[in-house]
Amino acid sequence: MNSRVRFRDLHTSEEHVRTLVYPASLKDSAEQLSVMAPLGAALLGMHVGKQINWQLPNGEEARIEVLELLYQPEAAGEYHR
């Protein structure tokens, strides 16, 4: 958790930066993204350059591409329990 990722919505070309968090840690929806949200779950396990499609609750299809992993606690040697 607490990985920070930059990604692009391939339908709108908008870029976003979000920090993946557990639902109980969600404080700012403009900066954070719950791993239980459809997009948060979709981002788990993805790597830079990977694209994914998934169906939104309203039935529309979304597509994103991971552009950059800005921060990952484990890669920085920070392990939290």
From TrEMBL:
SUPFAM superfamilies from the UniProt entry: FKBP-like
Top-level division of the source organism's lineage: Bacteria
Entry's Gene Ontology BP terms: DNA-templated transcription elongation; regulation of DNA-templated transcription elongation
Keyword ATP-binding on entry: no
Gene Ontology MF annotations: DNA binding; kinase activity; RNA polymerase binding
Limits of the Transcription elongation factor GreA/GreB C-terminal domain: 1-69
Keyword set, alphabetical order: Kinase, Transferase
PANTHER family found in the cross-reference section: REGULATOR OF NUCLEOSIDE DIPHOSPHATE KINASE, TRANSCRIPTION ELONGATION FACTOR GREA
UniProt name for this protein: Regulator of nucleoside diphosphate kinase
Natural source organism: Serratia fonticola
